[in-house]
Amino acid sequence: MKKIIILFLIIGFSITYATEKDSLALENPFKRYYKLLEDCDACGCSASGGSMGFSSMLNPNFVGVRYFYQSYQSTDGLYSNSPWYTENFNTIQLWGRIPVTTKIQVSLLLPYQFHNRESNTGSQSISGLGDLTALGFYSIVKTKKDSLTFKHHVLLGGGVKIPTGKYNESNNGSVNPSYQLGTGSWDYILATEYILRKEQIGFNGMLNYTIKTENEKNYRFGNQFNYGGTFFYVVANESFSFVPQLGFAGEVYESNYQHQQKVRNTEGAILFGKIGFEIGKDRFSLGANAMLPIHQNLTGGNVEANYRWSVNFNYSL
User: Fold this and answer.
1) Contact 128, 165 (CB under 8 A)
2) Residue extents of the structural domains in the chain
C-alpha cells in the first residue's frame, strides 16, 4: 500500500477579543453549552461523505439524526452542446460521538441514502442503507483552561468504513461513478484535528485521508483527501446558546481503477465556502449549514457540484 503522509500546517493566525467581565456568557446562570464547548474545543470538523463532518460544535458527546442534500449536474461531454442532467443525493444519517476515556472519543455514522437523477434514457432512483463509518480520536495535546490566553487542542484519529451499502456494478461506466449507495469496499481513514480558542472565539481545522480498497467487482474508487477550517463564535444567555460558523472545505479525489487499470476522468478537486449555525437548549440542539463551490474540477469537467446543505437534531449525552 502506498505510504501516506499527512502534513498539517497552521500559519499566521491571530484573534483579538475584548469585553467586560460582567457581560461574558460565562457569568450568566445558563452555562451548560458554553462549558460543553470549553470541554471539547468545538472538536469535529472531520469528513463524512466529503466534508459534512463527524461531530457537532455545540455538543461534544451526543447522539442524533442528520439530513444532508447534495445537488450535482453531469454531462457526457461528447459534444459542445451535450445536455446536462440533474443529480440529487439525499442522506438521512444516524450519528453520534461517544466518550470512551477522557482522551478517547468514538464517532459512529450510519446513513440511509435515496438518490435520483435524470439521463437520456429517463429518470433513475436508488435507495437503501449506506456504508457504516466508525472513527476514533485520541487527544495528544490539550492546554489547560487557565494556562494560556489561547487554548490549543490537537487530536489524531483513524477508522474504517464498512461496506454495508449496496454497490451496483452497472454504474461503472456512467459519467458520475459515485452514484452509488456504497463503495462495496473496506476503506480506511486517517485524520487529524486542530482547535484554537480564545474565550468565545475559535477556529477548528481538519485534515483526513481515506484509503480505498478494491471491491469484489474489481473496482476501486480513488483515495480521497479532505481539508477544512471553520471560525466560530459562542453566544449564550439564560435561555439558549447560539454558535454561528463560517469556513471552507475542500476535497481532492484520486483516479478510480477497474481491474487494476486507471479509469479516465474520475479524478478531481473541489473547494467550498460554508456558513452555518447551531442553537441549543437543555440537552437538545439544532444545527444547519450550507456549502457553495468556490472552485471545482470534477471528472474532467463533466460533473459539477451546485450546492450542499444539511440540518441536524442532537441529544447531548
Assistant:
1) yes
2) 25-316
DSSP secondary structure of 78-132:
SSTTPPPEEEEEEEEEEEEEEESSSSEEEEEEEEEEEEEEEETTEEEEEEEE--E
Residue labelled with grid coordinates 501516506: 4
Question: What residue type is assigned to position 19 of the chain?
Answer: T
Rounded (to 5) percent helix, strand, coil in the chain: 5, 55, 40
* DSSP, res 221: P
| More confident site: 54 or 276 | 276
Give 25-316's CATH code, choosing from 3.40.50.2000, 2.40.128.130, 3.20.20.70, 3.30.565.10: 2.40.128.130
Cell numbers that stand for 191 in this block: 485524520
- Taking 90 as the threshold, does the pLDDT of residue 315 lie above it? yes
Check whether 47 has a pLDDT greater than 70: no
Q: What would the pLDDT profile of 245-263 be if each residue is shown by its tens digit?
A: 999 999 999 999 999 999 9
